[in-house]
Amino acid sequence: MSLKNEGSVEIWLSHPQPDWQTNTQRYKFQDKRTAGLVFEAIKDQYKILEINFEGPFGRKHQFAEFMPKSDHNDLHVVITWKSNKIRLHLNGEIRETPDHVAKVDARHHAS
């Protein structure tokens, strides 16, 4: 991982609790720090994955997305950046959310 104008980071999230992706418990995953990049992830009680990612373009990026449906106990997270645009991929699916706004909107519409 580096802080070039183009790059990506790949992380697998998992938990010993088999239903961690769908239950109403909060999980804080261990932070990942390397080569000037910082990755933080939390799955909250509303089944929303909150990701804070610091490094590319000299700023902190925030994502909040509903947990995707999965038949596996782990979640594949990829963050890519190029030309001042950053994208979040969950289990191979592109998920884009505006920084700082998505978390409030997602919680408001959670069922």
What descriptors fit this protein?
single chain; 111 residues; mainly beta; 5-stranded antiparallel sheet; 4-stranded antiparallel sheet; elongated; disordered C terminus
List the helices and strands and how they pair.
Blueprint: E1 6-14, E2 27-28, E3 32-34, E4 37-43, E5 48-54, E6 60-66, E7 74-82, E8 85-90, E9 93-95, H1 102-108
Antiparallel strand pairs: 1-7, 2-4, 3-4, 4-5, 5-6, 7-8, 8-9
Order of helices and strands: EEEEEEEEEH
Got a strand count? 9
Based on secondary structure, the structural category is: mainly beta
Poorly predicted residue ranges: 100-111
Spatial extent as radius of gyration: 14 Å
| Shape verdict | elongated
Q: What do the pLDDT scores average to? A: 84
Beta-strand level of the residues, as a percent range? Answer: over 45%
Q: Report how far apart the termini are.
A: 37 Å
Count the DSSP helices.
1
Helix content: under 10%
Largest sheet, if any?
5 strands, antiparallel
Describe the structure.
With 111 residues, the chain is mainly beta. Helix content is 6%, strand content 48%. It contains 1 helix and 9 strands; from the N terminus they run βββββββββα. Strands 2, 3, 4, 5 and 6 form a 5-stranded antiparallel beta sheet that branches. A hairpin with a 2-residue loop joins strand 7 and strand 8 (85-90). Mean pLDDT is 84; it is low at 100-111.
